[in-house]
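Mods, move this if it's the wrong board.
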Amino acid sequence: MDNWNLLGHEWAVDMLRQHVARHEIRHAYLLTGAPAVGKRTLALRLAQALNCEKPAEAGTPCFTCRTCKQIDSMVHPDLTIIQAETEGGTLKVEQVRDIQRTLNLKPYQSQYRVALFLRFHEANANAANALLKTLEEAPSHAVLILTAENPEQLLPTINSRCEILRLRPLPIEAIINDLMQKGLDEDRARLLAHISGGRPGFARKLVDDVSLLEKRDEQLNDLQTLLPAARVEKFSYADKLSKDKDSMRQTIMVWLSYWRDVMLRVAGAETALINIDRNMEIEFLAGRLDLSSARKVVSNLEGVLEKMDRNVNARLLAEVLLLDLPKI
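Not the wrong board. Structure tokens:
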């Protein structure tokens, strides 16, 4: 209860609790951090703290009243969720314009209307400009909460009108303890905590959906096969990979976490590996590459993700990426 039933991010909860308790609520907040680090959960907790019918104390929601339960299920009449239809999709200007009309109405059953803009880095330029207008003209009964991976992805004029809270991944041990409390044995908890990279939402997703780990194994096995493969095999794989953009994005993110591990090992960094179950392979690759080669692969993978967001031809991106992989 002390930490709004949230794992980690105590400093953020403490700050927001004080804003609610002292009636010093900002009209807009921007929560940033890696996917599944806890941004959406924190946003919903803030909405509960703002509108709870019987708070345990000032700024601390009860989590049991009808309002708290509705907000937790994201079905409260004074809570609106705005997001792109799919992850990696585009949040459109019409969605922002629709919410502008809603925000001007008085709250239906609570003190505040809360608009939660998830993954706002997926907004197109028109949507971002429309939100700017909304931020400038938001009524006093409205609180806007945006989430994004980092503030640099948004217009500086949007950032300047928001209170920015940057959420960091949690210590691996905190995730391990949380998973063990949920009944996992220590080895399994340790593996999932590392793969999650300190992101509690992702760790829980790995527990709930076994197919995610199976898919990851498949993606990393494919990567091993591709390193010594001939050009014709790489072209064939690029064709298959680029047919489903969502799946391609997930594959690139898994490969990116793996190559970052390789780069850290080449650099001799003490940082814990994410892919601890692949330690032998990572050490093998690190022993055969120099730092600039490892860094180049990481940079290429990051570039692919960025270009996919700009709708560059996926097949071409996949082909260039695979042809540029170091020959091992």
